[in-house]
């Protein structure tokens, strides 16, 4: 099979049948489903087998409970050598019938793209993830995603199709006590990979109170911040200026300092903060005090989480001659 789908399962008896059904309903039919049961203690395995029926394209791996990352890597290890593409799927989600076909055709036609994401349909549509999903769906091209790469994880993990060669070269998934998918995207992009949304591909992302992104400490805001700081530091700056002297900026500064990055200045528009200091001795300046882009100037990292602030800061810096990704990076 040219395409394998990795679907980890842990106690998902109420949804795994629908997930498997949605895979089997794909109009593009040249796939193998590798369902990895991570020590379920409910009726998940029986429901998965019932949904698979006699379909030989479905392979079920039973494993003791070890967690998501080992389950994903076990699924990757089970992918046959000739396979070109690896898709992801979660046991509480569903694929639109044309998702895989759209993604395969997109990657076939665009050899420079490594990861094909999907347009996300959120259920329930009133979920607290709605603003995040709107943002995800706005990221269509690699240019869109590259600018937002350090703001938040730029794709819905269970909705992707990616080149197996790139995933193997990255040595699969890592467990660093932070989000394993965001870690993978940043590692792939650091190695030259590009991500884009495949036209027509849709993934139904079902939010629930028990979802790992809501319950696992690895997905807490502090762990996202540590991950961002780690990869921002790997870009090479020894000192940075942070736009935002509030809580978000101070938290990012602490995380960057742990990665060996010095904070040169904070930038803020609040006159009550300008002229003061943060982190003991770091001065707070206003945007008008910026020297402008140039060799030797610290890169600016924006860290203001107020809705709409990112676009205003981006426009302000560009108007001052700063070039995004060269002179400044958005991280909130």
Average the pLDDT over all residues and give the rounded result. 95
**Count of individual helical segments:** 12
CATH overall fold name of the largest domain: Spore Coat Polysaccharide Biosynthesis Protein SpsA, Chain A
Q: Indicate the percent of residues in helices.
A: 25-40%
Description:
The chain is an alpha/beta fold. The chain is built from twelve helices and 14 strands. It has two domains: 3-218, Spore Coat Polysaccharide Biosynthesis Protein SpsA, Chain A (Alpha-Beta Complex), CATH 3.90.550; 220-330, Rossmann fold (3-Layer(aba) Sandwich). The strands form two sheets. The chain has an eight-stranded mixed β-sheet with strand order 3-2-1-4-7-6-8-5, sandwiched between helices.
Which characteristics define this entry?
Spore Coat Polysaccharide Biosynthesis Protein SpsA, Chain A; alpha/beta; 34% helix; eight-stranded mixed beta sheet; 332 residues; elongated; 12 helices; six-stranded mixed beta sheet; 2 domains; Rossmann fold
Would you summarize the structure shown here?
This protein is of the alpha/beta class and 332 residues long. Helices cover 34% and strands 22% of the residues.
Topology:
Layout: E1 3-9, H1 16-24, E2 32-38, H2 44-52, E3 58-63, H3 68-77, E4 85-88, E5 94-95, H4 99-109, E6 115-123, H5 130-138, H6 142-148, E7 161-163, H7 164-169, H8 180-190, E8 195-206, H9 212-215, H10 221-234, E9 239-243, H11 247-258, E10 262-267, E11 277-278, E12 282-285, E13 299-302, H12 309-319, E14 328-330
Parallel strand pairs: 1-2, 1-4, 2-3, 6-8, 9-10, 9-13, 10-12, 13-14
Antiparallel strand pairs: 4-7, 5-8, 6-7, 11-12
């Amino acid at each position: 099979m040219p395409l394998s789908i990795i679907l980890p399962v842990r106690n998902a008896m109420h949804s795994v049948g629908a997930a498997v059904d949605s895979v089997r309903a794909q109009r593009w039919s040249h796939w193998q489903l590798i369902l990895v049961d991570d020590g379920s203690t409910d009726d998940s395995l029986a429901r998965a087998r019932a949904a698979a029926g006699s379909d030989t394209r479905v392979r079920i791996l039973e494993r003791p409970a070890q967690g998501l990352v080992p389950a994903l890597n076990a699924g990757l290890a089970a992918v046959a050598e000739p396979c070109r593409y690896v898709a992801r799927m979660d046991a509480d989600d569903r694929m639109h019938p044309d998702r895989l076909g759209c993604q395969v055709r997109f990657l076939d036609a665009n050899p420079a793209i490594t990861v094909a994401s999907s347009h996300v349909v959120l259920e329930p549509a009133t979920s607290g993830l709605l603003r995040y999903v709107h943002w995800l769906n706005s990221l269509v091209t690699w240019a869109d995603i590259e600018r937002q790469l350090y703001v938040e994880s730029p794709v819905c993990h269970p909705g992707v199709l990616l080149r197996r060669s790139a995933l193997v070269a990255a040595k699969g998934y890592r467990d660093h006590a932070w989000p394993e998918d965001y870690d993978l995207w940043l590692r792939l992009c650091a190695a030259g990979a590009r991500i884009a949304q495949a036209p027509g591909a849709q993934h139904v992302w079902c939010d629930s109170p028990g979802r790992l992104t809501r319950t696992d400490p690895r997905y807490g805001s502090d762990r996202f911040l540590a991950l961002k700081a780690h990869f921002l530091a790997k870009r090479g700056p020894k000192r940075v200026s942070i736009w935002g002297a509030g809580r978000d900026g101070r938290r990012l500064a602490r995380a960057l300092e742990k990665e060996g990055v010095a904070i040169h200045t904070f930038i803020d528009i609040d006159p009550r903060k300008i002229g003061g200091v943060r982190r003991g001795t770091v001065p707070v300046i206003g945007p008008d005090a910026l020297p402008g882009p140039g060799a030797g100037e610290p890169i600016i990292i924006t860290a203001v989480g107020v809705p709409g602030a990112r676009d205003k800061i981006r426009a302000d810096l560009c108007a001052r001659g700063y070039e995004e990704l060269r002179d400044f990076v958005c991280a909130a």
